[in-house]
């Protein structure tokens, strides 16, 4: 491989604190924390059992960590060539071997913790984690780039429901809502990097659609997920639920037309992804307020 034109990576600062700081920043801490907290809330609301709730939360956290570290380690060269200074591995602040080791260690822990939640629950969750790894290693460059996100997010209510005593199947609307939120998360996450990805030869679904069409598409899975989660559970939705549905629709339009405009940068750069997290948080809060379980 010709490396003569590659900009040299800055020297890494030695010392254990820098290793931990690099790992913390390489795991995609914002999305990992958001997903873990939302699933933990669902686990707590789904029924008693502190041990089960802790296991579910730990399984999701380790799975998210493994996916984030895998992503940054695998994409280190591509990120460096694209000048993504926010990636510790790409800028030389973290050693790729260390990040790979952390990814596999977290994956091993995720396997153990997922199976401890129950065979069916563990299988469902690990299916989502494997799909996420497949995205990192191959599928992100194909028209099926959205599929691992749909599988991964759809598997989370399956983990929560199947971990309950008796292993009840998750409600269809919980799985469908999770899958739609996953598709929205994919579109929102990729949106600010579409042009750089195309230059690097990455041609997933959003890259093939282009930034303008991806921005127009993003509100659909956001609003669709909220509609499913509002209208799917038994019983007519009350006034607050309808208000949330309308508010989410407005939020979806705002984050994709204002925050994620084609020339937005700085704190607005990840506006679409942040908006998607806000919508997901509102959806989960609505379920909790209604006392609706996912099984």
Automatic annotation (TrEMBL):
Swiss-Prot/TrEMBL keywords: Membrane, Transmembrane, Transmembrane helix
Alphabetical list of Gene3D superfamilies matching this protein: UbiA prenyltransferase
Source lineage: Bacteria, Bacillati, Actinomycetota, Actinomycetes, Kitasatosporales
Membrane topology, record value: Multi-pass membrane protein
Subcellular location: Membrane
UniProt protein name: UbiA family prenyltransferase
Lipid metabolism found in the keyword field: no
Top-level division of the source organism's lineage: Bacteria
UniProt-listed Pfam families: UbiA (PF01040)
InterPro entries registered for this protein in UniProt: UbiA_prenyltransferase, UbiA_sf
